[in-house]
Amino acid sequence: MLLLGMLLCGSPLNAATMERYSLTFGKTTGGNTTGKLGAKQKSDDRGEIKLTDKQLQIQIFSSVGIGQLKLHRSAAETSWPQTVVLLIQHKPGKPLAELEGFTLRGKSILIQGSRRTSGAMDQFILTDEGAKFQNLPSQKANIRVSRTKDAMRVEIPGELLSAETEIEIQWIDYYRS
Prior knowledge:
Number of strands: 13
Structural class: mainly beta
Helix content: under 10%
Largest sheet: 7 strands, antiparallel
Strand order of the largest sheet: 1-4-13-7-8-9-10
Oligomer: single chain
Number of helices: 2
Order of helices and strands: HHEEEEEEEEEEEEE
Strand content: 35-45%
């Protein structure tokens, strides 16, 4: 299992981090929320996880600027860190041109936005039936997006994810080269 996790993430991780969090790229199970994403992982898409006391940092290398991943928190882990940070790049030192589309999906939450809606992304909750998300956003999610010289930085407050053990994240760059 550890070897499989290392291969999927593309970098060596310490055993404690691999037991707490796992990362996979490619097709997600929650469905295609944008209608634009492909089901296949690009051969050179990869990610690296770093964990500190207050932050889970995921360095993502997305060769074409469109991608998706699944992040799983083990049942033994009682909560998410204070912040989950995504650093999305085409390759080391080359950030996405823009974050045109961003989707975060869990069992009970759906958040959609872009860099333009940083700090106020649309947040949807499950309907009373518990099988689908409502049509209109219930509130705004404080997910912050900024473009640095090295990466598109997405900061997700851990408290947003408190009810989730697994989340799916999708991103779309404005200009894909």
